[in-house]
């Protein structure tokens, strides 16, 4: 590596999602020069908010802060952002076979909370010491053990929980990965950021100022003992270290080349972890098809959850969002947007017993899997994949450090897990830098 590169005491951060931004923010706090390279013309990655539907945030990506004790709160406080306890979580309904019923009616027969059977099945399977399996198999086995009759409706509901909780089908989720991700101490309630999730990323970016380069597509990362050279759509960037905070789906696609190539254990983890599949549909309807009692509605066709983003903001606009995942997200992503919206709204109408034909005033499809800068939903550990996420804790050649939701073992697939991964990456670089100062 040439002399010029060696002299640049700077950290390159690849990707201005919340993981990359947090890493850059922490390094800047420590007085280190950073340069954040972001392909999109905005920061935030999977934090993306629209205010086009009314005086409330419509989340096109991440929607909730999951838990009242997670690290996200520290940043909310720092930036003076506000959180709203999500009222929909106390009014969960399930729509199955043209019937709408409170989720508690269904849960009662199978456990306390709606997600409880999935967690209990995974734990019970793990406790047996059997080889890893998929969550579908573990659930079937657990239900038999518990004497629970798994009706087709109940099974469909569990698939819905997989689609929204894991952005995958039950068959594609590994039990061991479910056990690794403990989310311990996070708390159980969901909160919305009143200013929108993207505001969090924008406030961080504001602190970073001109060190964030938008519209900068990273194409190649060259690294050796002396430093890192990144070739991007706007030219060359040099630094002594780099934080790779690109999504798993992007790494998997091979659109970013590494030279020398990543070691075998990294390649294997990138290949075997599943980036998941997520798709959201936002619609403004001509009238309000559901009554005030419904907070949110789990549906099984497609497997997903309808939310009312204006709930809690005292907004009356009939604006609704559907989050779907797994194979249903893949299917809807193959349709033209109008057809996907029509199909989703039609089935919502069927569940509610209301004709919603012609009721869509406007709508949008946000297909994260077909988004070139995401290529997935949120990461999933496949059966037999225990330990894959942890591989990203290693530092490559003392130069490359990974961050991003998929690198979090305990809190993957969340905003707070991504934030923690960014902080961890920054701390690793600070300690590498301290060592380099002592032993130049
Ligand atoms: C539909 C959906 C709903 C979700 N709901 C929730 C929720 O309610 N609560 C929650 O906690 N989490 C939720 N999540 C998960 C959460 O959004 C993610 O875990 C988190 O935002 C990931 O942050 P990240 O920085 O790891 O990745 P990203 O946000 O994806 O950031 C990666 C960045 O890299 C950039 N990039 C990609 N390729 C290149 C390139 N070649 N060159 C330069 N830049 C590049 C991208 O544009 C992006 O900005 C949801 C995710 C989705 C998709």
Describe this structure in words.
The chain has 440 residues and is α/β, with parallel strands linked by helices. It has a domain at 3-45 and 195-274 and 380-438: FAD/NAD(P)-binding domain, CATH 3.50.50.60. The chain has 14 helices and 21 strands. A 7-stranded mixed sheet has the order 8-7-17-18-19-16-20. Strand 11 (218-224) and strand 12 (227-232) form a beta hairpin. Helix 2 (18-29) packs parallel to helix 14. The longest helix has 24 residues, at 415-438. The mean pLDDT is 94. Bound molecules: flavin-adenine dinucleotide.
Comma- or semicolon-separated keywords:
440 residues; alpha/beta; FAD/NAD(P)-binding domain; five-stranded parallel sheet; globular; binds flavin-adenine dinucleotide
Quote the beta fraction. Answer: 15-25%
Annotated CATH architecture of one domain: 3-Layer(bba) Sandwich
Task: Summarize model confidence as the mean pLDDT.
Answer: 94
Derived structural class: alpha/beta
Strand elements, count: 21
Which ligands occur here? flavin-adenine dinucleotide
Quaternary? single chain
Count the DSSP helices.
14
Question: Order of strands in the sheet with the most strands?
Answer: 8-7-17-18-19-16-20
Radius of gyration: 22 Å
Give the topology, please.
Blueprint: H1 3-6, E1 10-14, H2 18-29, E2 33-37, E3 49-50, E4 58-59, E5 65-66, H3 72-79, E6 83-85, E7 92-96, E8 99-102, H4 103-107, H5 116-127, H6 135-146, H7 152-165, H8 175-180, E9 190-193, H9 197-208, E10 212-213, E11 218-224, E12 227-232, E13 235-239, E14 241-244, H10 248-253, E15 257-259, H11 264-272, E16 278-285, E17 296-300, E18 303-307, E19 319-325, H12 326-334, H13 337-352, E20 360-367, E21 400-402, H14 415-438
The structure holds flavin-adenine dinucleotide.
Flavin-adenine dinucleotide binds next to helix 2, strand 16 and helix 14.
């Amino acid at each position: 590596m040439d002399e010029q590169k060696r002299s640049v005491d700077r950290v390159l951060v690849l990707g201005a999602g919340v993981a990359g931004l947090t890493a850059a923010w922490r390094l800047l706090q420590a007085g280190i020069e950073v340069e954040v390279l972001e392909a999109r013309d905005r920061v935030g990655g999977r934090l993306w908010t629209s205010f086009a539907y009314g005086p409330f945030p419509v989340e096109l990506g991440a929607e909730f802060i999951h838990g009242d004790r997670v690290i996200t709160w520290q940043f909310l406080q720092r930036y003076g952002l506000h959180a709203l306890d999500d009222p929909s979580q106390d009014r969960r309904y399930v729509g199955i076979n043209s019937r709408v019923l409170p989720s508690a009616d269904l849960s009662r027969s199978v456990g306390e909370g709606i997600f409880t059977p999935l967690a209990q099945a995974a734990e019970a399977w793990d406790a047996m010491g059997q080889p890893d399996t998929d969550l579908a198999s573990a659930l079937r086995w657990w239900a038999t053990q518990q004497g629970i009759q798994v009706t087709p409706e109940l099974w469909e509901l569990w698939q819905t929980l997989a689609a929204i909780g894991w952005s995958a089908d039950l068959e594609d989720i590994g039990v061991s990965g479910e056990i690794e991700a403990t989310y311990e101490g996070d708390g159980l309630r969901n909160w919305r950021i009143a200013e929108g999730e993207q505001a969090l990323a924008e406030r961080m970016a504001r602190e970073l100022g001109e060190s964030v380069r938008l519209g900068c597509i990273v194409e190649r990362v060259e690294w050796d003992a002396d430093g890192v050279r990144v070739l991007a759509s706007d030219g060359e960037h040099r630094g002594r270290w780099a934080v790779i905070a690109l999504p798993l789906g992007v790494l998997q696609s091979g659109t970013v080349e590494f030279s020398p190539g990543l070691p075998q254990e990294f390649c294997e983890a990138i290949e075997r972890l599943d980036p998941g599949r997520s798709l959201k549909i936002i619609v403004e309807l001509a009238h309000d098809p559901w009554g005030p009692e419904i907070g949110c509605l789990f549906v099984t066709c497609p497997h997903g959850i309808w939310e009312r983003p204006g709930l809690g903001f005292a907004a009356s606009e009939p604006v609704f969002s559907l989050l779907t995942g797994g194979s249903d997200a893949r299917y809807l992503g193959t349709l033209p947007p109008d057809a996907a919206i029509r199909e989703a709204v039609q089935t919502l109408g069927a569940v509610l017993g209301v004709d919603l034909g012609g009721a869509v005033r406007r709508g949008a499809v946000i297909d994260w899997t077909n988004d070139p800068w995401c290529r997935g939903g949120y990461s999933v550990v496949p059966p037999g994949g225990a330990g894959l996420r942890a591989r990203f804790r290693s530092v490559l050649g003392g130069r490359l450090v990974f961050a991003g939701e998929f690198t979090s073992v305990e809190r993957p697939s969340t905003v707070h897990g991504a934030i923690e991964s960014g902080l961890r990456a920054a701390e690793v670089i600070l300690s590498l830098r301290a060592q380099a100062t002592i032993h130049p």
